[in-house]
Amino acid sequence: MDYFIELFFSGLSRGAIYALIALGYTMVYGIIGLINFAHGEIYMIGAFTSFTVATILTILGLPLLAIIVLTGIAAVVWSASYGYTIEKIAYKPLRHAPRLSALISAIGMSMFLQNYVLLAQTSDFLPFPTLIPDFAFMEPIAHIVGSTDLVILITTTVSMIFLMVLIKYTRIGKAMRATAQDRTMAMLVGINVNRVISATFVIGSSMAAIGGLLIASHIGQINFYIGFLAGIKAFTAAVLGGIGSIPGAVLGSVVLGLTESFATGYVSSDYEDVFAFSLLVLILIFKPSGLLGKADTQKV
Amino acid sequence: MFTLQELKRSALISLWFVFLTFPIMVVKVNSIEKTVQWRWMNVVYVLVGSFVLSLLFRYFLYRKEQQSGEDEQQGDNTGRSLIHRLLIVPKYRNMIYGVLLGTAVVFPFLTSSYQVNIMTTALMYVVLGLGLNIVVGLAGLLDLGYVAFYAVGAYSYALLNYHFGLGFWAVLPIGGLLAAMFGILLGFPVLRLRGDYLAIVTLGFGEIIRLVLENWGGFSQGPSGISNISRPGFFGIELSLEMAIVYIYYLMVLFVIVTIFLVNRLQDSRLGRAWIALREDEIACQAMGIDKIKTKLAAFSLGALWAGIIGVVFAAKTTFINPASFTFLESAIILSIVVLGGMGSIIGVIIGALVLILLPEYLRALSEFRMLAFGAILVCMMVFRPQGIIASIRRTYTYKPRNRDEA
């Protein structure tokens, strides 16, 4: 039973991280109908920025709490800037081009960013400093639920609530929903669509940065290639939940995280990634609209 | 052309990029030895580089917008490049073909076997590019897992050779057909999907094949791969290593010629025109009575067939394969070839393959920037020139207004 609970919580925290990345996919898809293939790379850049900042701050000898806060801020700021810039360079000129052009451009961007980090930093796995200490009050259940898992779950929940409030109650959130529904109409009623799209990329990238920071300190090592796999898996989660739907992305991520965790725990860890990819293929074949998505009808 | 305002804007953009690249380009930390390395020179490079690039980026974007405006005014202008005009005249065309063929034939006698080896690789990518061109360029199905079919071909030769001692020529059709079968197997369920979903599913499929090859040790010998695969036989005569390299080179030249011939014929056939029509408008196509599933499956399996055949050649050429040769990057390279050359254009794809494979080989110093450049090429081509270096020319009927005197 302990093993089951352990797997459950590790799957839950895995799903929480996927959710942070999947939100970026789903929001961008909802607004401009593009699979932002470079999103995984933004997450990777978030992890690298936090690695750099956290190490410098550790050398300077700051208290742990200050390190965590400053690292988080740095990761969010830089990832959001990358998200903003990528949209301006690779997607904005293609807004009226066919869907496939934008997708190819996104793939190119992803390759570019991966190799940019590879060349500027290193191709080796880098050991990430432990930021989250083992809490004393977690001691009795530490063998089932790790402290990092707890932090991941809390951070993700807070981020989700923040996002929900942002989208439901603020002006920009309203503008986003309007743009997602009908871009032309939104433009007609005076919404600056370009700004809304930029905001979407910034918010999505910030979420991915938080995910990058959490996963890096959870797994303890980073590499230029982590974005690719995480990106594909988060995309799987977004599609599973119904792409374009925010609650769907969260639900899909949790389902994917649990599936992976149980599959690796009870079946075999060799095929961990195969499970995720097979799940993706199966959903797209049998229910492309996902769990919470609505099937879109094709207009002629 | 460049006003002060433009320059000021570029300066601001370059400052933005300095900020953006700061944690990745300038700082490099070592978390074990607790040292920080500041590479201040990179600030200068980024500053200058992004200044120039931002000017160029906006200049080309501006020119593209100008041009598309002009095109709309002039109606359909036939923006044909020099190569197209040369190829239209039969005399020049035959001359170019003759020269190319002559160069290809004497190439091994003029250069070392190292050069011949590189050229063989480039020719393999030409065929792979032409194969993917059927799927992506003609039928408009973005296939990101093309390398899976390549792997199927390579592994079918390696395994059949290892277990049953089958020769190259026996496996060549088997490998191709197996890959085509995989194409149909994958294509059948996924072809109902919309374009971008299809791309992701094929990507997933490619990764599944690679992961299975890596983990199913009993079947594929896992990450350590299969070695000592026999080279292609030459009427039962044992060839020396150098002779074998030249032999494979000539085989590839032959394959390229056959492929060009077949793809060219295919493009103008009923099936080829159905692909192009399907790419342009699926619904209109179905209304015209084109069987969508059958046409798409044909594209998928034909594309896969070529990948499978080249996979067999690849296994025979290197005599060693392992799953690491069949990563997503390989698919991305082949896709770059097709996109750079011009989707749907045969000459374009050939030039694209030669440029993308040969340039990094000869510019060794730049070879580590290869993948970086491929990524940048994909983005820039899509933004500035979606039709590729050499755009494919649509078959058109020319209508000559009759002279009044004759009438």
Automatic annotation (TrEMBL), chain A:
Compartments reported by the entry: Cell membrane
Q: Which Pfam families match?
A: BPD_transp_2
Main localization, broad class: membrane
| Gene Ontology annotations of biological process type | D-alanine transmembrane transport; L-alanine transport; L-isoleucine import across plasma membrane
Does the record carry Acetylation as a key word?
Answer: no
Protein topology in the membrane? Multi-pass membrane protein
Q: Which UniProt keywords apply?
A: Amino-acid transport, Cell inner membrane, Cell membrane, Membrane, Transmembrane, Transmembrane helix, Transport
GO cellular component annotations of the record: plasma membrane
Q: Which GO terms describe its molecular function?
A: L-isoleucine transmembrane transporter activity; L-leucine transmembrane transporter activity; L-phenylalanine transmembrane transporter activity; L-valine transmembrane transporter activity
State which residue ranges cross the membrane: 16-35, 42-60, 66-85, 97-121, 141-167, 274-293
Q: Which domain of life is it from?
A: Bacteria
Q: Which CDD domains match?
A: TM_PBP1_LivH_like (cd06582)
Q: Provide the family line.
A: Belongs to the binding-protein-dependent transport system permease family. LivHM subfamily.
Q: What is the protein's given name?
A: Amino acid/amide ABC transporter membrane protein 1, HAAT family (TC 3.A.1.4.-)
- Organism of origin: Desulfofustis glycolicus DSM 9705
UniProtKB/TrEMBL annotation, chain B:
Q: Tell where it localizes.
A: Cell membrane
CDD domains reported in the protein's UniProt record: TM_PBP1_LivM_like
InterPro entries with a match to the protein in the record: ABC_transp_permease, LivM-like
Q: Which GO terms describe its molecular function?
A: branched-chain amino acid transmembrane transporter activity
* Superkingdom of origin: Bacteria
Membrane topology note: Multi-pass membrane protein
Q: Which GO terms describe its cellular component?
A: plasma membrane
**What Pfam families does the annotation carry?**
BPD_transp_2 (PF02653)
Keywords, alphabetical:
Cell membrane, Membrane, Transmembrane, Transmembrane helix
Q: Where is the signal peptide?
A: none
Fetch the PANTHER family from UniProt. Answer: HIGH-AFFINITY BRANCHED-CHAIN AMINO ACID TRANSPORT SYSTEM PERMEASE, HIGH-AFFINITY BRANCHED-CHAIN AMINO ACID TRANSPORT SYSTEM PERMEASE PROTEIN LIVM
**Protein name from the UniProt record:** Branched-chain amino acid transport system permease protein
Species this chain originates from: Desulfofustis glycolicus DSM 9705
